[in-house]
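Note to self: the last two entries modelled the partners one at a time, which told us nothing about the interface. This time every component goes in together.
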Amino acid sequence: MSAVEQAGHLPDIFSEAVGRRVVEHRAWGETVAVALPDLSDAQASALCAHVRTRARETLRRMETARIVAAIDRASACLLDRAHPLRRKAEALLPVVTGYDRETVRLGLTSYLKTFRKPQLLRFLAEDFSNPGVLDGFQPAVKGGLVRARGPDLLLHVWAGNVPALPLWSLVAGLLVKAGTVGKLASAEPLTAGWFAHLIAEADPELGECLAITWWKGGAGGAEAAYLTAADCVMAYGGNDTLAALRAKLPVTTRFLPHGHRIGFAMVGREALDSRRAGPLAQLAAHDMVRYEQQGCYAPQMLFVERGGATAPDEFARHLAHALAALASRHPRRRLDQAESSAIAAWRSGHEMRALDGCASLLGDPADPWSVVLLDRPATLSPSGLNRSLAVVAVDDLAEVPALVAPHRAYLQTAGIAAAPARLVALADDLAAVGVTRISAIGRMTAPEAGWHHDGRFSLLDLVTVTEIEAGAEAAAEGFAPYAD
Amino acid sequence: MSQAEIVDALLAVIGRPGATDAEFEAVALRVFAYQFTHNAPYRRFAQQRGRTPLTVRRWRDIPAVPIKAFKDLTLSCCPPDAAERVFMTSGTTGSGHGRSYHPTLAVYDASMLSGFAARIMRGRERIRMGILFPDEAALPNSSLAHYLALAKDRFGTPDSAVFVGPGGLDLDALLAALSEAEASGEPTALLGATYAFVPVMDALAAQGRRFALPPGSFLFDTGGFKGQSREIEPDAFYDALSEAFGVPRESCLNMYGMTELSTQFYDDGNAVCPPVKSGPHWIRSRVVDPLTGADVPEGETGVLVHHDLAHFNSVSAILTEDAGVIVPGGFRLLGRVEGSASRGCSVAVAEFLAAAQG
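The predicted structure of the combined assembly is written out below.
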């Protein structure tokens, strides 16, 4: 791969004269060079002004249905495996992100499926009982009229290498008609730009209200221009990054942070008969392997209840076996030193505990996966990532909410295998300690269309409503030409 | 083998001018057998890895204990309360203190003195020393306090002094001593924790003062900044040291040691950073893949494992958290190995711990 891939998407008037910063990504024995747009302060200000103006003048007047149609067409292109951009995505993303080709291919399809028209309409219906409020004033339940408007200029600051993840917030912004400027994540700087191109192709006017660019964080200059221009900033990253960002924003700017999260899974004894345990372990292994536990929804600990036909230690062995089997279809890329060290530190910590007999390590350090079995209840803690996980034996799944509660601020997804009544009872307790998403095991890394990321309303959080009170409406009647 | 026998054997090794590969290996295997027999947690650790004195034939196969284990486990061949001295880490990173038990300081002292004489004194008998670190009375569990006390007693002139007391750094006394040294023309050495030099340099800068210490003077720092002062990049640090004290960077020596060792590594000055570090013939280093513990190909970066025969009572092979690369004549130290943050949006250990510690 010798050509330099031009990342991002800029409205036509900016595409020529901007600087580029070329970054090389290597994995699987290949190299991909990506040129990120790098605008000067003045260009950044001009870009923000342009997007804001275009959004006010055109996007505001578009029916939501037209935006949905454009997003639907863009998704259709990327779902079409013969489309040149889809082919490019399948070729470049494994090298840029380090995920294996199958993971990238399956992941892209599963994400993009959630951005087709029916799913987009569901996304809207999830947050707005009457999505018409985005197009104009609608009768309010309490009386009067109400309409909702997205920010004139919404800034996205994306992070992380999970392919296509930025599309969630990008789509949310467009659905509420926000003029959009997105900052590419250095670790996955491609999909958002491609998607924006496809939207611009599907609807050039909408394309003018949308820019995908990049800037060096923490360096002042262009960053300050973007941050001061935005009405609302949706940001992803670690808490340090988010805190630094928040500190730079004017107090009147809405800030919607999505920090790092930790996921975990729970398996009840009813799911641990000899017929179900093996397949369930395979599903759990999939949740670990897909995106190598880099996504916020991935499990880093698995609580297994005692008393089933399959004991926790046997389940741990099933899991280890499933991970070993997946390693050939979804090979783990070569880890860098910091990643190896993270796993090594996690393993050696458990190795010390194993000396007291309350932990056992499965597999060899050189295996591309690591499973540790803890025989006593342990509070939730992160694994070494990249296919490492602790299986914790518990007497009753009801103990788990207390074991995860100390980390409330970091909780998000819990994968649960249990009978319906317990699922709801456990979910209630988990909700009380901060868990915001309960999924089936095997679906942890694939949130459904319209999900509430981190328990928030993705669209409602973005909009401001304007109400015409019933009284104003009634008073207006008095001034009508037909008034008695 | 008894403790007395192992001590005698090690003192003999330290007393010799060098060691061949075969000689080092032979002693390493004996020390491993001793530690395997008398240090129960280490024995379980080694057994878990399938490494016992019966299966291990090369020193490189002796299992290295992660440095964190010194916090969690009591790694001692003698009963812990029979130790003459316990050195503890300062505990600036993570929780708890790593402990090294010394039933006798005879081997530690012989190792330290021999290394210091060869690499710092280099044939000189004594030099006037200023110590920028609390003394042993103030920090009885600090291996560095003991180390510097040995240096001052054995290699310092009678007018050598410690400039860190109960009230902290005695800047006035230090500056007076430096002025005196400058005027006298007699070489002087300043030795201390890396971070201790920072406030001295700041004070000199604030006063617009600089010293030109007489030729033959040297500066000795160790341990890094540890959050005790602001962090300064190595090149900037040695430039500033050289500027403030009028000592060339070749004479700014850095010692790399740790509480979990009984032997220290040195460089031959910091004209270029990072310099090549090396130790005496009773300590050897490997660079490994942290996950598998296997040696990385020569010239590749990995994590340092040190094998210190002199650390006989505890564990001789330790897996550090320092990145390094083997080069001719020793290794280069490339900073701490940090576990990575996740590449995506999941919480990794470092962020989690930081939050847990508030």
